[in-house]
Amino acid sequence: MKSIKLKDIRLRAATKTDCRTIAALYSISSDGVADYIWTTLAQPGEDIFEVGRRRYEREDTDFSYRNCVVVEREGEVIGMLVAFPMQVTETTQGDECDPVLAPYGRLECDNSYYICGMAVFPEYRGQGIGTRLLQLAEKNAHTMGYGTMSLIVFEQNNGAKRLYERFGYREIAREVVVPHPLIHYSGDAVLMVKHLEQ
User: Fold this and answer.
1) Residues 124-144: tens digit of each pLDDT
2) Range of the domain at 19
3) Which one of 66, 102, 104, 162 has the minimum C-beta count within 10 Å?
């Protein structure tokens, strides 16, 4: 672990030049789900992180660098947060025909500020950066007028689940994970929600 002081990091809006690193961090945060998606979209021989980079360079989708904040230390990006308002309709929640991805679609929480992904490179973990990112997400939700925050976590990811519980998130639903070699966990995916004080 590389010891850091929180005063030595800065959180800033992501730019297009960050997208390759965002892809690497999103791969970590999704525990293999992003790798699965990107593998299905890759051209023959294409690196999946290049697929992720291209996807986060887009500007007309929720999965865009525009919805990302990066954590920077001495000019190096060491962490990120992807979060955006979640609006669910009957058609969007039920139209996921890929059986591997369908459980996550069923866990989407309408009219919430959704933490889609949050990650810090392993050598910088355990030093309060995740807490800083969760605090920023909550501030952004307040600013945008959302009273509910949501996220999805694997039940077997004990460290992440404990962090969210300490921060006031509570389980409200779960779905069985469809096993796939690229996805790191089995068991259930858990929807956790936090209601903000107005």
Assistant:
1) 998 999 999 999 999 999 999
2) 6-195
3) 162
